[in-house]
Batch of 2 targets.
Target 1
Amino acid sequence: MKLDIKYIDGGICAAKGFKASGMYCGIKKPANDDPSIKHKNDICLYTSDVLCNAAAVYTQNKVKGAPILVTKANLEKSGNKAMAVIANSKNANTCNADGVEKADRMCELVANELNLPKEQVIVASTGVIGQILPIEPIEKAVPVLAKALDYGKNEEAATAIMTTDTVKKEYAVEFTLGGKTCHIGGMAKGSGMIHPNMATTLNFITSDCVISAELLQKALSDIVKITYNCLSIDGDTSTNDMVVLMSNGLAQNDEIKEHTEEFEIFKSALFEVMGELTKMLAKDGEGATKLLACCCYGATDVDKAITVAKSVICSNLFKCAMFGKDANWGRILCAIGYADAEFDINKVGVEIGSEFGIIKVCENGAGVDFSEDEAAEILKSDEITINVYLNEGDRCATAWGCDLTYDYVKINGDYRT
Amino acid sequence: MKLDIKYIDGGICAAKGFKASGMYCGIKKPANDDPSIKHKNDICLYTSDVLCNAAAVYTQNKVKGAPILVTKANLEKSGNKAMAVIANSKNANTCNADGVEKADRMCELVANELNLPKEQVIVASTGVIGQILPIEPIEKAVPVLAKALDYGKNEEAATAIMTTDTVKKEYAVEFTLGGKTCHIGGMAKGSGMIHPNMATTLNFITSDCVISAELLQKALSDIVKITYNCLSIDGDTSTNDMVVLMSNGLAQNDEIKEHTEEFEIFKSALFEVMGELTKMLAKDGEGATKLLACCCYGATDVDKAITVAKSVICSNLFKCAMFGKDANWGRILCAIGYADAEFDINKVGVEIGSEFGIIKVCENGAGVDFSEDEAAEILKSDEITINVYLNEGDRCATAWGCDLTYDYVKINGDYRT
């Protein structure tokens, strides 16, 4: 199978027929001197020129944001078809008595403006939990957003979903299916309360491939497992996590069927987009100075490799050591040891690496001599990889995260003000 | 059942017939300007005048410190009898190729000096993982420690097991069984890598009751579940966790039997000691400024209550909010929501309290109006309690932890130097 998947600009507007817009509507008064607000936009809209097949995965948190409940109901009612997505930041519309009513109203506003059935609108919110969502600014914003919709405005949308994110997260690829040029693009928001479980923080993916809603869902679920679900910023699974993938068929490829080379290519392209967004989310984790990846090799199955890799990535002590550029590999082995998976700890090997080199620190479950100077040099990088070798099988997986820093504490010590 | 359990001084020497000693032997060179080293002592010994029945629980981490392996083997060989305990800090003797040999040698040194069978000696180590333990300083120290053993030297031992602890942790109680005065006392070390799983960080409990090793083990396992196992400082389950409980029978009470009032009294006294040590560990968590307790009420069973309470206590976001005195209750509900337990989130209520007052912040899974000024006043306290009401049953449990602060990051950014 020849894979020719290349990066392109355009984010959610990279796929044919997707328009976007974003703006500031005043959901929360901006404190101009508040360093946690990196971008002013707080609401966005994007639409497809034609009806899309849609797939979504949602948070497994028992506390579910009202937009999650409304989106799920809408997609059930529409038979997994969607035309438009509206999303806001600065308020999660979660744990509010009137939350569902307000989320539903947001869909209604978009439906009225664009002349769609309400159930073809997807809604998402992110921000503070448990504060009443002001609907008036949104009522005023929707007509403006609708009028401003355009093919090149992906960035306006991508910045409107930012909370404590310091950079926008967009990625898109181009690839070929049966001679037809196809696209998948996406945007995501971080940066805290990120420990996806069967879903993740707000992530929006668009595609122009011809593919059924069933296969879209299958592809999304497969790829979520090895991308977003292998990400942890702080161990906290959000109440509003959602990934939504829409495909409008404008690439005019022959419909993608299961068990075909085309489906594998589609999934590879989706992995590329979601994998890159995952890394962007990790790197821009709240307060982060380093992107951390843990690659677990030699497992008897992928789930075991994921469990071990995530256990390392989630360890506060390991995260602090990386912030401090301290090759304290005992903490890595400790986290491997309490991972909820069966394997022989006495076979485990560990390496620490970056673009500045790689060193073995542990073999057969015990430490090996290494140069602290070399380790210090390697740890100067802002992208550190930990390789874990279980030496029991041939499966592997990677998990991503970031270091734990003073700024994480600062950002989260007073998030609401 | 009348409970008359009162606090007394004396720590591990409160029970009749227990002597202790502690000293600095030079396991790690002290950096006089290193603020993380709060106390110089690095090794201690304690013994009973007569042979004890012993019970222990150990870490569930697959990576097990060599002292864990040696202690376990010794207690198996001795039929759960023990006379002496040797423990060091500054080096965990874990993940070292010669670890078991060195831990065994520590037992041998004590056995030779005190003229005991080696298998009656318990060994424990705490500190950095993966650094070779220097045995020479310990060889020189054991005769000195043996000579210095005395009934009143519990504090010398309690300070010798400190790592990043800022205060020693000791607690003891006196109670009566059948007219005989009995005692249980203990000491513990914190302060990081604390997320006990079926065991906990180093904790040493002594008693003078007449009780079989089997019943000691039963009591210990029961009480560990609702004390140390309900504690989390940073989510990291250590490789060297161990609680050991020894009882020498010198109180001369009639032997405690199962299913009796006496066994309940013994367990209550043990709960008092282990519960207080748990709170001390939480309050002195690395970098902590606040002791946090989460009491979960109205659960259908205790395990569920523990799961929910621990989920809140472990949330980094909640811990940061408490550090920042921010009544961001959405994070509490979020953590309740991702707890791995079945209950109806729409019935959940939450209160935040301290000695300065208590406020309801959430009812039926949704926020309620509260005064931010009142909340700010409550959160000024250095001991915060979160009450969670599941409103489904009549069982409850409490979990303990601490806030996440700049100092936690600082301490763990460069622990090894």
Target 2
Amino acid sequence: MASLMEDEVFRSFAKYAAIITTKLLLMGPVTAYYRLTRKAFQNPEDAAAHSSKPEDLKQLVRTNDDVERARRCHQNDLENIVPFVLIGFLYSLTGPDPAWALLHFRVFVCSRFIHTVAYLRALPQPSRGLSWIVGLLTTMSMAHSVVHSVVFH
Amino acid sequence: MASLMEDEVFRSFAKYAAIITTKLLLMGPVTAYYRLTRKAFQNPEDAAAHSSKPEDLKQLVRTNDDVERARRCHQNDLENIVPFVLIGFLYSLTGPDPAWALLHFRVFVCSRFIHTVAYLRALPQPSRGLSWIVGLLTTMSMAHSVVHSVVFH
Amino acid sequence: MASLMEDEVFRSFAKYAAIITTKLLLMGPVTAYYRLTRKAFQNPEDAAAHSSKPEDLKQLVRTNDDVERARRCHQNDLENIVPFVLIGFLYSLTGPDPAWALLHFRVFVCSRFIHTVAYLRALPQPSRGLSWIVGLLTTMSMAHSVVHSVVFH
């Protein structure tokens, strides 16, 4: 059982995977914060918890630019962080060079934090685009190592 | 190979992860059911499979409240169940107390079934909100254990 | 460490999981390609990177049928490929028959490539629906094996 956790690369992977998955998870409360402060809800029952006036109910079920921005950021995290963890796990098992593996994990995690700041603050492009592509290339480099390792070893 | 599956905590994890991932997967057919019964499709080719009248095609590509509710429930499942499985796997490898680990898995799985019922039935808040937060805290507690275990042991 | 990668079934799983997760990841660039060629952006800062005329900014933040189709395809991939990898991993650990396991992995991967072609090309139904259901049943068959294996062995 403990054998995976005794491996240096796997321990690094576990740490960075837990950190970046927690960051993905926290996009839920971030979106909820925007919904509550901007009073923009998706469901009538949510609006009803914030106002008992019937005329408010219809008005509070609406979209808001800040909420939609947080949702898009959350969705991009889902689309990129989940594949990173799935492929990073397999990559950790192929016996990569520890320093090289650590570089992959750190570059990916940094790129996603930069991506979130660029998205939520609406920083000018190409800040968000570049941070997205860096994360994408990091994961694809690991996926290539996995396929190469399985096919040729 | 069999070493992971011989571990008590990992076996519990595997069972609950398989159950809750199947539940996530079944939200697809649930949404499809609402699309078919409410006749609200996303693609012209889907509408074409249900009616050959040209004037129907435009009308059948539409949104419907029940369909959108099922989709939001599915999306919330994706955002929460996938991180649970990713982090729960790493947590299982850190050698947690079996009873404590089992409590985490069971509380999470229960919270997500309650969440789905609360969402699809539009139960009054805070039923859905609380079940979401309980699941979130369960996963974050496991993520904390993973990082703590890697950094301090 | 190497013990998982020395297992025949796990090696097959690693290969197919890396391939299909890379395919999921590539839906990001596919959507970006449609956004750039159709000039349909989600964020004002993205539109600003493509035109400096103020009157263009509002017009370029819009939806486009091809972009929305690529996004739905990406979303369906997320909803189906991620559960496949999660459950496929647990399934690989239950000691399945190698030929039977390989069949599951190959059928799933094929079904998703067909699904993507059917979606992006808007092929007549039931091509897309069938490829989705085949993938779904493959993953559920593996989930059943996992639960059965944990409960009865």
